[in-house]
Amino acid sequence: MSNFCQNCKKNEIDLDPEGYNSNHCSDFCRINTFNQSFDDEGKIISPCTQCKRFPHVQAPCIIQIAQSEDAYKSVSEQWNKGWKASGLRPPKIISVWKIFLDINILNRYKRYRDKVEEEGNFQGRKFPKGNGKRSRRFHGTSQICLLGLSTKTLCTNPKCATCGIIRTSYKLSLSDARGFFGEGIYFSSSPSKSHVYNEDSQKTLKILQDHRFSSKFQIYSKLKETTYRTMFLNRVIVGNRFEQCVFQKFNPDTLPEGYHSVVGEPTKSENGLEYDELIVYKEDACVPCYFIVYQV
Fold first, then answer.
1. What pLDDT is attached to residue 39?
2. Which residues of the chain, if any, have pLDDT below 70?
3. pLDDT digits over 129-186, tens only?
4. Which residues contact 38 (CB under 8 A, 6 or more apart)?
5. Global pTM?
6. Distances from the Cα of 207 to the Cαs of 117, 118, 228, 239, 278, in angstroms?
7. Do 30 and 10 touch, CB atoms closer than 8 A?
8. Nearest to 98 by CA among 20, 161, 175, 174
9. What are the CA-CA distances from residue 202 to residues 106, 142, 157, 178, 229 (Å)?
């Protein structure tokens, strides 16, 4: 990738908030390229995030990340390394979308992050060498619309959990008290764990594909049914974690003093967890970061 801005071709590119290279030197150049290149036929470029606040993006929204981008490669690497379903290869990622949140939600998360790190004097580092204080974790949920498949526009259906999370982040009021660790917001380092909970995001589409007769070298097209699901990769504040190998229910009021989250550790016992789980009990502690579309 060139070290010079894709738009002006004069200034050097800058890094985005996660330390990955962008394609532009400034938000001005990003918007200029965005306006010229982003159309309804799927010509989508990766955003420049030098400003670190995305002031000109019509948030909340999603923008597709090119496969050549470092951010895409990082998500894909975490996906492949984290998939632990026995006997199954990691599903193929079709697309990765950067989530642009309402600035108030993003600022709320940052304030909580700074508060927790100040209390514990933590210094979070990036996946996969992190010390666990700030982590990227997967979350699976339901989806009504075709976001990420045939549209990039959030739907208005109140039953679409996916679009609701992108609009307002995670809500404790929608958490299920029947969860093994009580009324919290659940994540996992393994996408195969989150895959168990996103069955209602599954969509089957008919895709026009080209086929070739090897004997006559003729090409024809046919419709082929392909099935997809979607999943979130999130930023989660772990802080001081209360590690559990047995099921114990908590809520925002009963979490032991001095702890910020609960981590369910996998065990080999018959009734134990097969995959790790990370549960937080404050809405400020997590935000969706990437939206992943994959083939099943």
1. 36
2. 1-2, 14-57, 121-132, 177, 207-223, 245-246, 269-272
3. 334 477 899 999 999 999 999 999 999 999 999 999 999 999 999 887 677 788 899 9
4. 44, 45, 63
5. 0.75
6. 47, 51, 12, 44, 37
7. no
8. 20
9. 28, 8, 17, 24, 5
Token pair 């948030």 is found at 59
